[in-house]
Design a protein that fits this description.
The protein is α+β, with helices and mostly antiparallel strands. It is 30% helix and 31% strand. It has two domains: 287 residues, Nucleotidyltransferase, domain 5, CATH 3.30.420; 99 residues, Substrate Binding Domain Of DNAk, Chain A, domain 1. Bound molecules: adenosine-5'-diphosphate and magnesium ion.
């Protein structure tokens, strides 16, 4: 069995496999490209178009086109409604992308591809991870492992260079940002701290430029082009092209024809950088907080890796040079490192003596809501802190608050904040307590993550050391069995080209 690596990106995806000579290589798609745009065009009732051809249709057929679906993984809302009225969820659209990537990879390798490793942002919570696993299964693939993208990038660099030490990975892609610190020792990749923002990427830089130019069109007496889907899609294309150009040039022209009148602008790099200073600053804040959590200073960092297409923007390189006083590793390919590293990890899964081992951390804190005895307020108590190595098991003891208390409100939360309003409540239930408990009876809450990053919670009556029940985290946003079967059936009817 051979397992390949897939980088399922917000804007671009890539597949890679380790060659006979032990080197990871990008597998070129059917259009001859190394990257496949993560765009699905619902062409007709029988089929979808994926990739560059679909992307080209985004402007002319915005209603049939689905982009940036990764941002919506783990959500229950449909991301597309077909001409026949069928609603598609994010994992179903991702399954169509995966099917295309696997078919193309199979064509490149000359044998069918069924076994994959898929990369996900390190900060993906387990609803988003489950959605990604479901997408793989919907595509008919066996997903051997979900690997964190920064870890994959580090593996690509580490296996290529053989360099040990502390790695800092800055990944600014099309739709998401993350920052990760790893320690690499002799083929072991241990994540120390990671954080990210799933709403911060190239699209957001484009949106600023779109907003800016749309306003200038209005100022010149034109209509609000953002209200017209076709014009808005056209302006988005022009703005992205201009942004790419500003990575190498000081000036980029943008032209848009609206109802017979052409609006022409010249955007300077300085103008664009001023516009986007706030977005860049958000990455800076996240970087500093990740370094704090890792309890490291920049002096401790040996290698800085820049991945994600948006790290080609000069202001990103300047920011990192200023903060880290390091030159980013030159050999890292911003678009390909993640897929290449995923291929190395995929290949090592089937080796009798793996040369690469990966230790990941939890990206989200898990906790529970209880009454704070001092303030009398409901408070979120973190039980598994963020950045705990997985697998892990933590416990915390609480006490009952009323004499002869017979029931307990149990909850499982995701997030760091002490304020229950600022965390996600994954689960709520009411537990019956056995009669005859003393006042302030101890209640023990045990939370664990297994090796797959799936969370388990069990509550104990500590007086009698008896379990009060195990909580299966309900993820209403994830597919249940029926919806999964329906999804498979619907996708089976769709041809992918
Ligand atoms: P993702 O992993 O989120 O799919 P990628 O890492 O492939 O994203 O990066 C895609 C993003 O990189 C897009 O927003 C694209 O506009 C941007 N990008 C690609 N090349 C450049 C460039 N030369 N300058 C600025 N941005 C770029
Ligand atoms: Mg990426």
């Amino acid at each position: 069995m051979e397992v390949i690596g897939i980088d399922l990106g917000t804007t671009y995806s890539a597949a890679a496999a380790v060659d006979g000579d032990g080197q990871p290589r990008i597998l070129v798609n059917r259009d001859g490209e190394r990257l496949t745009p993560s765009v699905v065009l619902f062409e007709n009732p029988d089929g979808v178009l994926v990739g560059t051809m679909a992307r080209r249709s985004a402007a002319s057929r915005p209603g049939d086109c689905v982009q940036f679906v990764k941002r919506r993984m783990g959500g229950a809302a449909p991301v597309h409604v077909g001409a026949d009225g069928r609603e598609y969820r994010a994992e179903e659209v991702s399954a169509l992308l995966l099917r295309r990537l696997a078919e193309d990879a199979g064509a490149a390798l000359g044998r069918p591809v069924t076994d994959v490793v898929i990369t996900v942002p390190a900060y993906f919570d387990d609803a988003r991870r489950t959605a990604t696993l479901d997408a793989g299964r919907l595509a008919g693939l066996t997903v051997h492992r979900l690997v964190n993208e920064p870890t994959a990038a580090a593996v690509d660099h580490g296996t290529g260079s053989g360099a040990d030490g502390v790695y800092f990975v800055y990944d600014l892609g099309g739709g998401t940002f993350d920052a990760t610190v790893l320690r690499v020792t002799d083929g072991d990749y241990e994540v120390i701290a990671t954080d990210g923002d799933r709403d911060l990427g190239g699209i957001d830089f484009d949106n600023l430029l779109i907003g800016y130019l749309a306003t200038r069109i209005i100022e010149q007496g034109g209509p609000d082009v953002t209200g017209d889907p076709a014009l808005a899609a056209e302006l988005r294309e022009r703005c992205e092209a201009a942004r790419l150009r500003l990575s190498t040039d000081d000036l980029a022209p943008v032209r848009l024809t609206v109802r017979g009148r052409t609006y022409a602008f010249q955007v300077t790099r300085t103008e664009f950088e001023d516009l986007s200073a706030g977005l860049l600053y958000r990455t800076e804040l996240l970087i500093e907080s990740v370094m704090d959590e890792a309890q490291l200073s920049w002096r401790d960092v040996d290698h800085v890796l820049l991945v994600g297409g948006c790290t080609r923007m000069p202001m990103v390189r300047e920011l990192l040079a200023r903060l880290t006083h390091r030159t980013p590793e030159p050999g890292v390919h911003p678009d390909e490192a993640v897929a290449l590293g995923a291929a190395v990890i995929a290949a090592s899964l089937t080796e009798p003596h793996p040369t690469v081992t990966v230790t990941d951390v939890t990206s989200q804190a898990l906790g529970t809501i209880a009454l704070d005895g001092d303030t009398g307020r409901l408070t979120n108590y973190v039980i598994i802190p963020r950045n705990s190595p997985v697998p892990c098991r933590y416990e915390e003891t609480f006490v009952t608050v009323q004499p002869r208390q017979s029931r307990l409100h149990a909850s499982v939360t995701e997030g760091d904040d002490a304020d229950p309003d600022h965390v996600a409540v994954l689960h709520r239930s009411v537990l019956d307590l056995p009669p005859g408990l003393p006042d302030e009876a101890p209640i023990r809450v045990v939370m664990s993550y297994d090796a797959d990053g799936v969370a388990h919670v069990e509550t104990f009556d500590a007086t009698h050391d008896r379990s009060l029940g195990t909580v299966a985290l309900d993820r209403p946003a994830n597919l249940d069995g029926d919806r999964f079967a329906a999804g498979r059936a619907a996708l089976a009817h769709l041809g992918v080209r």
